[in-house]
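Long-time lurker, first post. I've been practising inverse folding by hand and with some scripts of my own, and I keep getting stuck on stretches where the structure tokens seem ambiguous. Below is the full token string for one chain I'm working on. Before anyone asks, I'm not after the true native sequence, just a reasonable design that respects the backbone. If someone could post their per-position residues I'd love to compare against what I wrote down in my notebook.
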């Protein structure tokens, strides 16, 4: 089988994806895609097929070959661009294949070595011409992306920068002693326990050699007054909302606890506040005299809160939010995931704040091997709870973890599923239907999170639900998502008018930047360039 036949099969089955892009011709956006493939960490590069387009006029939309005129000239032009347009010389492999008498170009772009990144379009400059590959789109890099790409050159991370006019007098000796207490519990013989405070702070990169506090130092050991003065947005807002939607009752909106402290202490305080406030069921086993708690595991809540604090972007003036609804807990931190969504839970971590992460690791509050997400998925499953949902929102620069506070499928869920009269659905499809009912939509990525399957299997399962009339496919290509079939009741999602009204009320009652609740397609194009990634509701 020729390679172009294999590529067409992939496109018509999976659409464009992380490592495959289709172009009708040699347009300007091809440079964006080449930059993205060359930059994306761990991707290994990708392939661009030129002379293929998606035909949405067909009964069943499909990719078709339209061919390339003068393929030798187009190939030479592209090779010339790759040699001169970018900040470094790129040498992609360009091959020509024939399909039904038409010429098609296949361009294989390798991921560049760490020391060569970031690769950017020279005329656009570093901040306007550097791209990453996010799902099937080419995204302009922001400060965090560029820092990540430069980080591979061992440059200084943001959390190691000297911060403001702070001095060692702004650091709290009690916070330093609390670190020693946590470290002693993990390893009583740890060498750093015998250091003086000044030596310890230097070892943790909390101060530089001149004893000037870094951002890490202020975040971990800053006095409350110092944190309020220098980092007023660094806090955790724990918001308790009655009901299942944001401000359902304008007369009973929410209660809020604003927590501000050094990060190690802040994590403990937030964890205790949330866990003690959650409803828990109890089960008394036969022959036992003490009931066992059956609520969501405490380790899951701890992992979610630590993840938010450790991976937050402290470049952004926005607090971490923990919103407790009647049926779920949403934990949001500024800063989208540096890891691709399909790689969440896989070994290895992409660290936004490596100095902070090292301290959390040494105190056993967190790990740095990429198992935190896996733990958050496994523990609820073992306890019979629904798996968490992870939303990385590049548009609003947010990462949100949603934990459902009830078991996998409640009696109400089962009753609703029985009303659909589809007994042949898999457990993954059943749960997917409840997600669509509660959130209003689902897409391939969200389905994969909750079924532990690959992209192809997710596409097939969602297509089957469409064939049964349970779901309706919306949009085309990378922007595809699915909504409830006509006639099925969406029991939880607010209408657009209700959303607007709630948003207006929330703006009057709280000055925090709230997560968008609008459903949007996965990507938008302006002047032919892909921008942003999907906004998707967690619930």
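-- Answer (accepted) --
I ran through it position by position. Result:
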């Amino acid at each position: 089988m020729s390679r172009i036949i294999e590529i067409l099969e992939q496109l018509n089955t999976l659409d464009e994806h992380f490592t495959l892009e289709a172009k009708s011709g040699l347009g300007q956006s091809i440079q964006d895609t080449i930059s993205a493939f060359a930059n994306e960490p761990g991707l290994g590069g990708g392939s661009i097929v030129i002379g293929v387009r998606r035909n949405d006029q067909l009964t069943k939309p499909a990719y078709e070959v339209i061919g390339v005129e003068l393929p030798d000239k187009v190939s030479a032009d592209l090779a010339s661009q790759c040699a001169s347009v970018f900040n470094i010389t790129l040498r992609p492999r360009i091959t020509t294949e024939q399909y039904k008498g038409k010429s098609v170009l296949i361009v294989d772009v390798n991921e560049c070595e760490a020391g060569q990144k970031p690769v950017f379009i020279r005329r656009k400059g570093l901040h306007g011409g550097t791209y990453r590959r996010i799902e099937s789109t080419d995204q302009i890099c922001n400060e965090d992306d560029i820092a990540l790409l430069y980080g591979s050159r061992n440059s200084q991370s943001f959390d190691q920068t000297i911060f403001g006019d702070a001095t060692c007098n702004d650091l709290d000796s009690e916070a330093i002693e609390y670190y020693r207490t946590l470290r002693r519990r993990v390893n009583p013989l740890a060498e750093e326990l015998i250091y003086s405070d000044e030596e310890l702070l230097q070892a943790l990169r909390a101060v530089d050699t001149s004893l000037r506090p870094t951002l890490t130092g202020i975040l971990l050991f800053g006095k409350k007054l110092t944190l309020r003065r220098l980092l007023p947005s660094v806090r955790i807002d724990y918001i308790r909302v009655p009901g299942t939607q944001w401000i359902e009752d304008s007369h009973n909106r929410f209660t809020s606890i604003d927590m501000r402290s050094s990060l190690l202490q802040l994590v403990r305080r937030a964890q205790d506040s949330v866990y003690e406030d959650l409803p828990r069921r109890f089960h008394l086993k036969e022959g036992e005299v003490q009931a066992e708690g059956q609520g969501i595991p405490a380790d899951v809540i701890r992992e979610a809160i630590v993840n938010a604090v450790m991976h937050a972007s402290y470049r952004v003036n926005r607090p971490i939010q923990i919103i407790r609804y009647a049926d779920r807990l949403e934990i949001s931190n500024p800063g989208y995931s540096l890891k691709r969504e399909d790689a969440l839970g896989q070994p290895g971590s992409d660290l936004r704040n490596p100095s902070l992460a090292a301290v959390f690791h040494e105190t056993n509050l967190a790990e740095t091997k990429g198992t935190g997400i896996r733990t958050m998925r496994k523990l609820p499953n073992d306890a019979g709870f629904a798996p968490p949902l992870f939303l990385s929102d590049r548009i609003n620069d947010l990462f949100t973890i949603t934990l459902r506070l009830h078991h996998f499928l409640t009696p109400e869920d089962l009753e609703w599923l029985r009303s659909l009269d589809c007994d042949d659905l898999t457990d993954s499809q059943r749960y997917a239907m409840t997600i669509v009912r509660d959130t209003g939509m689902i897409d391939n990525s969200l389905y994969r999170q909750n079924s532990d399957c690959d992209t192809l299997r997710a596409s097939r399962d969602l297509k089957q639900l469409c064939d049964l009339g349970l779901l309706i496919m919306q949009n085309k290509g990378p922007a595809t998502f699915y909504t409830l079939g006509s006639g099925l009741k969406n029991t939880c999602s607010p209408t657009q008018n209700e959303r607007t009204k709630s948003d207006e009320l929330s703006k009057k009652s709280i000055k925090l930047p709230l997560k968008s609740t609008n459903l949007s397609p996965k990507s938008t194009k302006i002047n032919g360039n892909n921008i942003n990634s999907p906004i998707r509701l967690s619930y």
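A couple of notes from the structure itself: The radius of gyration is 25 Å. Residues 185 and 363 are 8 Å apart (CA to CA). Happy to go over any region you disagree with.
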